[in-house]
Amino acid sequence: MRDYGNMPVMTWEGSKNSVVKARAQIMHGEPLIMEMGADFGIGVDAKACGCRIIDEGKRLLGCEPRCTLSQLAGANGQPALAIVGEAAAQAGLLVDLDLVRPRIIIYD
User: Fold this and answer.
1) pLDDT beyond 80 at 2
2) Phi-psi map region of 100: left, alpha, beta (phi>0 left; psi -120 to 50 alpha)
C-alpha cells in the first residue's frame, strides 16, 4: 500500500491558478494530492482507465491519468482537469482515486 503521508496536498478550486500549480508540480515528476470538494463526482470507468479496485470499491489504484482525469473533467464540468491529466500522462505518472474523501493522487 502506498503511503501518501509525505506528498504535497492542494485544494482543487478549478481555477487557472489550480491548473498552473498542479501542472508545475506534475511536470517536475513530483507527486501531488488534489483534494476535491465534497460535491465532486469522483467515479470513473475503472476498467477503461486501467485502474485496480481495492477496499470494496472505495479506492482505485494505478489509473491511466489521461483517461481518468478526462472522465472526471467531463462528469464534473471542469475541463481544466483534462489539462492536468495530459500533463500527468506526459510526465509518465499514474493516478489513484480515493472515492471516500474525495481526492486525486498523482504519483510516479
Assistant:
1) no
2) alpha
